[in-house]
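Sample intake sheet
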Amino acid sequence: MIKKILFVFLCLGLIQSCRTEKKSLKGVFFGGQIINPSSKKVTLYQGNKSLDVFELDENLRFKKSYDSLNSGIFKLEHLPEFQSLLLEEGDSIWVRINAPTFDESIVYSGSGASKNNFLMELLLKQEKENDYLSSKYSSSRKIFSQLLDSMLLEKKNLWIKMDSLNDLSPIAQKVTQAAYIYPYATIRERYALLRGSQWTTEEDSLYFSFQKYLNYGDNDLAFFNPYVNYVLNFINKKALKPGASYFQIKQTTDFNIKRLEALDKNIKGTLLRNNLARAIAFEEILTFENHGQHERFLQFYATINTSPVYLAEVLNLHNDISSLEPSNLLPKILLQNSERDTINSNFLTKDKTTVIYFWSQTQMNHYRNSIERVNRFQKKYPNIRFVGICIQPFNTMVDEIQKIMEVDKKNQFALIDFETASKAWVLTLLNKAMIINPQGRVIEGFGNFSDTNFEILLKKID
């Protein structure tokens, strides 16, 4: 009980009175530099809407001044990576990023930089802690809670120090506090999903006593990952029947419908509700083995969601997945070959059954592992062609790496327009693989190239 009181005490900072941030500047300036970029584009999102698409100049820089910008959470995307940041009236922020080590390299400078550097500091600390905590889920509730409380106290002290050095606005205080409180609340929910199925009603009530001090309808945080992740885990626990195993049912359509019911009953705020419902819908639609149940799910989703834009997105994704069902023609996209020529994807599948796998310039270990698998498969299945698709356009760095790795370039291509191609081919995971017959028709649209069972598919078609 003492530990629960400690957690509550630490969380009370979320509702404390906030000082008003004093800024003489009007509008917002935002710019930056991307070192070793994976493409020439940088996209700034507000919520789920694209606000601006920047083209990097010859110095790999981008910048823009905004006369007026609603304060809140934004997302900076340089494919395939992205990161959240907080922009407010009066901010003048410059960001420097090294694309191959995206999160670890992000550094902000200028007015408004401190709050964003604090968010990145927390993120990197918590990522390291997660590796450690993954080995502690077998601990008792008491020991696990003590561990989380000590970590939470450390982050609270960091926040107090940062707050004392900066005149933060109310929204900046809310976001920076949420950044250290909700990740640990998420871990508590996950622990309960793993260990709590046999708890008594009293044990359950004591463990979750911290929940009454948290906010379940904060539209200001509707697009802030630490908060969204927490509320989704909260919904998961609410949707789980007593005694049921989360890991046995988490990918079923029935459970995802239960999640929508729990959302409808427990979550307030239209912006937040729609964003969470969208996230659950995407998880369901991207669970390809549930495809036969998706119509039933979509009918219920339509009763919860009130955003026509989100409904259209979800329905379009459902239709895109349907286009990759067996026997359908593979949708056409444009690709770049190693000579930097533009070709049609139809070219890939002529004369041979073809396996298409994907890789990224920012994850070269993954690429190296994929090439090793390709070399092994080619010896065993010489009648199958293996084609690698880089999700970013080629550059001189790729040329050098492929030369060192002795990669056969005639079987290597790159996406020209990731957004268009990823939609057509439903590219949501880098491990995705497709098998296409010589006539260009889909044999398998949603394979996993890294899965040990992928070779079973190859044996069937060889």
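Comment: DSSP finds 16 helices and 15 strands in the chain. Residues 1-22 have pLDDT under 50 and may be disordered.
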